[in-house]
Each structure stands twice: as C-alpha cells, then as structure tokens.
Amino acid sequence: MLKKNVRTNLHDLTEGMDAKECYHPNAQWWGSHPFNELQGIDSINGVWKSIREALPDLERRDSIFVMGKNVPDDRVAFSMAGNLMVASLSHYQGTFRKPLCGIPANHKVVNLRSCEVHRLVEGKISHSYVLVDFLDLMNQVGLWPLVPSLGSEGLWPGPATSDGVRDDLESPSEDNKSIEVVLQMHHALHQFDGINIESMPMDEYWTPNFQYYAASGIGTSRGLTGFRCHHQIPFLNAFPDRKGSGHYIRISEGNFAVTGGWPSVEATHKGEWLGLPGTGKTIGMRVMDFYRLEDGKIAENWVPIDIIHALKQMGFDVFARLKHILGDPETNIR
Known about the structure:
Elements: H1 2-14, E1 23-31, E2 37-39, H2 41-54, E3 59-69, E4 84-95, E5 109-121, E6 124-132, H3 134-140, H4 177-189, E7 206-214, E8 220-222, H5 223-238, E9 243-244, E10 249-253, E11 256-268, E12 282-294, E13 297-303, H6 307-313, H7 318-325
Parallel strand pairs: 1-6, 7-13
Antiparallel strand pairs: 1-2, 3-4, 4-5, 5-6, 7-8, 9-11, 10-11, 11-12, 12-13
C-alpha cells in the first residue's frame, strides 16, 4: 500500500493538507528557479500555498507514477543507492486566478507541468526534487520571453500505452532491465567524437518513431532525425564539452525508467542556444528523464529541464525579462 499511500498524500497536498502529514520535519525540497533549495515543513507548505492561491480550484493529474529502489551512481557525492524513490510526471490543472512567481493570471484553465522525485524514509518523504515548467506557463498566458522553440510546444501527452500509473504494482521491482538500457544509451552519448553525429549509435537504443518531449524552450520532436535537428545538434553546438555529472535517481518499474541529476549535466556555453550567443560560462543543468521502453528500446522520453535556471547562469534573467514585458523594466544598471 506504500506507493498508493504516497500518491494519495501528494494529491492531498493540492487540497490543502499540511505537509507534516507526509514529510519528515527537516525534509529538503529542491525545485525549479525561483523556488530553488528549501528546507522544513514551513517552506514546503509555503510553496503549496502560493500554488493554491494562484489556482484555487487546483487538481493534480498524474500521467506517470512509478516506484523503485535506486541503482547506485558513483559520481554523486551523496549516495541514495538502495533508497526507495517515487517519481511522477503530472499536470496541476486549474483556473489561473492570481499571479504565480510573477507570471500574471489569465483567468483561464492552465496546466502547470510538474515532474517530481521523492525519496522515502520509513514511509515519509525526506527529500523532494520538483521541476515545474514555468516557461510553459508563460506560453499558456501568451507571454513568451524567448525566441521560438525549434520543436513543437504544447501539453505533454501521457504514455501511448496508458499504463504510466499502476497502483497495483506495490513492491519495488528487482528487474532493472529498463534502467540498464537507458544507462547504456547514456554511455553511447559519451562516444561523441566532437565531429560526427553518427559517432553516437543512438539507433541501437531508440524505436524508429520515438517521441522526445523536451522542456518548453526546446519542444517536442519525433524520431532520430527530429531529435537531432531540434535538440541534439543545437545543444552540441552550444555545449560541445557537455558531460554527465551524476544522478540522484536511477529507477525502473516495468517498462518505465527514471533518471535525474542536480545538476545532471555540466557544460561550457560556447555557442548559440535558445537565442543566446555563447558566453563562455560554465553551467549546471537540473534535468530529469522519464522513459518508456518497448521491446528493449526507448519509445518515449519526457525531459523536464530547469531552463530558466540554466539561462540565469548564462546571464539571462527570464523573470526580469517578463517584468519588462509587463511594464516594470529595470531603471538602473546593476
């Protein structure tokens, strides 16, 4: 019943339940900019209060909700190997009545995209990672602060197989086949020779028409050609020295797998990305990956990224740009 109870508690938070009912007293909550790294019940309740005030008829809709025991990653300083983790891909749907993080309300229905990882200790949450796509919310209210995305923007669909939420799968799976395929694919990414895109044998790990649902700003693409054109090639041109910096989560549940890092990728911004010319700055990207596999290959990949935090490290403050668009520009040089 643990998995179902955790999911029920996370839904109850949207209804106003006190976080102390499902979190440890000194739990850590790490979320997208501008929330960032918080600690303790009061801070966690504060996040939910701001979201509920903005969307008073809030409801949570899960597309993926999985649980598993963590596979170790020697690159991370804090080990969560063997810890029980749950991960979810959700939308918080509601009528946008009051501003949220400076994003003005449009008084219409919005879908606040959220991807979450929660570490469980004795049945309660001790650590949460939550990536909320505030760029997508800006897009929904008609205030896009960047150049047009190369991929397609829009609501992320759930898994094509409609089996991303299985409350009947209560025991953490001992079958790590799905995460093993994903980690092999990650290893193949690091075979890039710096010149030839074919040096990464991606077709060994993806189905022919796989769907790649990237964060707002990058957008959705289909198949290897779409993935390379709309995301991989622009990303490699911008960050040619990118490297993985470790995962706090690596779990499988059946045909689903999840990874995530804080940061997951470190790189030097050397070329244009999302409209910003290279700055020479070194950045760390907060990333999660949700995967669905078919016959041992990846068929769908949802990729939440804290784009706003990455851009801020590159010297571009998205929320300051939004304020300017809304008629409240900076009036002094910082």
